[in-house]
Model the fold of this input.
Amino acid sequence: MKLASVTDKEKANISAEADLKFLSRALELAEIGRGLVSPNPLVGCVIVNLENEIIGEAGYIRSGITHAEVLALEQAGDKARGATAYISLEPHDHFGRTPPCTEALIRFGIKRVVCPVEDPNPLVSGRGFEKLRSAGIEVSVGLLAEEAKKQNEKFFCWHEKRRPFLHLKMATSLDGKIAFENTVSTMLSGSEALARVHRLRHEYDAILVGSSTVAADDPNLTDRSGLERGRPLVRVILDSMLTLSGDSRIARTSKEIPTIVFASEAAPSERKHELEKCGIEVLRSPAGPYDLEWVLKQLRVREIQSVLVEGGGTVAASFLRSTLIDKVTFIYAPLIIGNRNAPLAIAVNEQKFNPFKLKNIEIERYGDDVEITGYPVYGDN
Done:
């Protein structure tokens, strides 16, 4: 009996399924670099031969070392000739800390590249694809684009908005309180939620709080996830009059852990000198630390690509009011505090605050605590 031949439509469906499978694998490999590669992007690469077999794969794991594309190509070796490269972000075509990845793809004889999105970096954007096409390589762009942008949301914000990506994280009771009584430190979250918070800190370049949080909690503000980091987590504190105590955990550890305090020019110079002796970098502005655009500009100069804003209520309200927050996470403990004097997660006081919704909601449970994460929709956006 003669077997029916595979139609062009069936071939296309098989090819589409393969593209989805292998590009998903490239995105999975890119995750290897989370917490390690900033300010560079997460990148994964899979090399697949004509028989749809993986012959090389890698993730980018450290800023300044060989990129994922080159690692995967070297693994594939001569088998890469005529193969397809699945890459989670557009390969670069310029000399930076490493040679252009486009040259390696061309040199190894890759015939097709499948990639979700252009790199937002103006040094790269579109140029990598153009170089590949000019060399006769077929380039397919757009599959899993939203997933790829979300994976590198910090990197995209850095280049498109020209500032660090800001993620507000608050731990609250069910009635929106962050402590039992005003100015009294309270640990609301359970152990599983606390472990989750440290994994979240691991993803970020800096953690930011206000001076009231430091005074109430005397926190360490460190990444205790146990995961390897590419750079130390920078501690950022908004402290108008430099009230940070020299006996605080922050001050006592600032020679080992990078710490920046933003203050007003009216803050006492002697306090500035005292904190600087502790190893703290003190920056003063005429408009004070709540000139958030100035704060973000200073952080960008220091190549801080992402900031986890952990409050308290005044800091959270200030960033939200300024419509600067890019992502919001609230972790709700199964508690009802009720005390009218207990501090709120968002302390708006008498100042105007425009309500907003979150989109692309994700809900997770950690022990008895519930985490809700989403992206703010400001105004008419």
Q: What stands out?
A: The longest strand covers residues 357-366.
